[in-house]
């Protein structure tokens, strides 16, 4: 009968306690059970994010690491690994100059790994709908009708049926349409959501000896992959903001670079709201990943900038955008990649104005957030 297994402090021995006897066998680390290709692929995908997608630089780094730390052996070398990357569809080779570039499979695999690391493994949803216990305004008419009640939307009124009711109830000689004549056409409720993901690429994301852009990219990729996998009928738009704001494609996420930019949060929110106004889904939201310090506004052909503190002129305009999003019933969820107390104070103020949510994370624990929900006025720690 096996009671337990304990690994002792030895690179070569495993200790197993069986009843009153002891059995010593060779200890085989878990990583050694992993196929050589998978081990090297994990390292390759990590380095791809640090080199902003430069395959040549990644392979050069891996060859140097191989020489120093013996990542490969005689049975499986770096040449075998590069061949497998091409055969398995992770690399695309330019037929003219022979240069490698990452494939769509590589980009998706990086996003999936970020999703598993931060949010855990999620099963793909065949329906792509958000679960909800509440009914609401949908966007597809069905055959069911009912009498009008106060609070119904004007665009739900069935004009043909309502006019017929008026003629039946009041006669045809003098037309008279009352509230009791109005008939509502029911709609199927679908909890599909339109999401805009905002990513801060200002210079502060790499200042002060901290690499904030790498964890920001990981959070962004995890969110993007979660939406694509679990809610495939949702819409997802991604934008970055520095001095200005502009949209990007999901394939560009793993390779984002910080620019010599200030932080124009106002421009990012303005673009996000413009995008969401064009979306037909009733449910809309904004995810914003930032270090929490707006420092820039666009004024005419130039910029108003202040990098030394929370400038009240910049803050007020940013809070105005948060309030505007709230009036449009668009919640903003902020992922705060910084631990500075005065920056977190601004994020709390911003979140309270919008009645949204905020997650605070240090650089070493992306899966451990302080979840602030001002809407429900409670706090809990999410593991």
Characterization of the model:
The protein is α/β, with parallel strands linked by helices. It folds into four domains: 2-31, no CATH class; 34-102; 140-188, no CATH class; 193-382, Rossmann fold (3-Layer(aba) Sandwich), CATH 3.40.50. Helices cover 34% and strands 24% of the residues. It is built from nine helices and 17 strands. Strands 10-9-8-11-14-15-16-17 form an eight-stranded mixed beta sheet, sandwiched between helices. It has a three-stranded antiparallel beta sheet with strand order 1-2-3, with no helix packed on it. A hairpin with a 6-residue loop joins strand 4 and strand 5 (100-102). It is extended and about 95 Å long. It starts with a strand and ends with a strand. The model is unreliable at 1-20, 27-31, 121-127, 132-136 and 370-383 (pLDDT under 50).
């Amino acid at each position: 009968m096996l009671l337990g297994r304990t690994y002792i402090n030895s690179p070569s021995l495993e200790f197993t306690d069986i009843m009153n006897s002891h059995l010593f066998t060779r200890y085989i680390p878990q990583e050694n059970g992993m196929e050589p290709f998978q081990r090297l692929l994990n390292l390759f995908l990590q380095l791809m994010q640090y080199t902003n997608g430069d395959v040549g630089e990644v392979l050069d780094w891996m060859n140097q690491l191989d020489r120093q730390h013996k990542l490969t052996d005689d049975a499986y070398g770096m040449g075998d690994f590069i061949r497998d990357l091409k055969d398995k569809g992770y690399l695309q080779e330019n037929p003219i100059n022979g240069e490698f570039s990452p494939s769509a499979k590589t980009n998706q695999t990086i996003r999936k790994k970020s999703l598993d690391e931060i949010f855990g493994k999620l099963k793909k949803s065949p329906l792509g709908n958000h679960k909800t216990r509440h009914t609401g305004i949908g966007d597809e008419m069905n055959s069911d009708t009912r009498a009008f009640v106060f609070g119904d939307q004007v665009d739900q009124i069935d004009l043909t049926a309502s006019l017929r009711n008026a003629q039946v109830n009041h006669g045809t000689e003098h037309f008279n349409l009352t509230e009791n004549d109005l008939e509502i056409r029911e709609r199927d409720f679908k909890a599909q959501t339109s999401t805009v993901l905002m990513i801060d690429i200002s210079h502060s994301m790499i200042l002060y000896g901290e690499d904030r852009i790498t964890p920001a990219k990981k959070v962004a990729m995890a969110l993007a992959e979660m939406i694509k996998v679990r809610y495939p009928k949702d819409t997802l738009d991604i934008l970055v903001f520095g001095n200005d704001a502009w949209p990007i494609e999901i394939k560009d996420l793993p390779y984002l670079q910080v620019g010599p930019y200030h932080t124009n949060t106002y421009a990012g929110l303005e673009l996000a709201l413009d995008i969401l106004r064009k979306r037909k889904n009733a449910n809309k939201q904004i995810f914003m990943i930032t270090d929490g310090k707006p420092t820039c506004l666009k004024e005419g052909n130039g910029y108003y900038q202040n990098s030394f503190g929370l400038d009240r002129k910049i803050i007020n305009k940013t809070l105005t955008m948060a309030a505007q999003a709230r009036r449009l019933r668009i919640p903003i969820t902020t992922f705060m990649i910084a631990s500075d107390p005065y920056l977190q104070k601004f994020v709390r103020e911003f979140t309270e104005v919008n009645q949204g949510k905020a997650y605070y994370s240090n650089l070493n624990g992306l899966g451990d957030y302080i979840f602030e929900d001002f809407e429900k006025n409670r706090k809990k720690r999410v593991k």
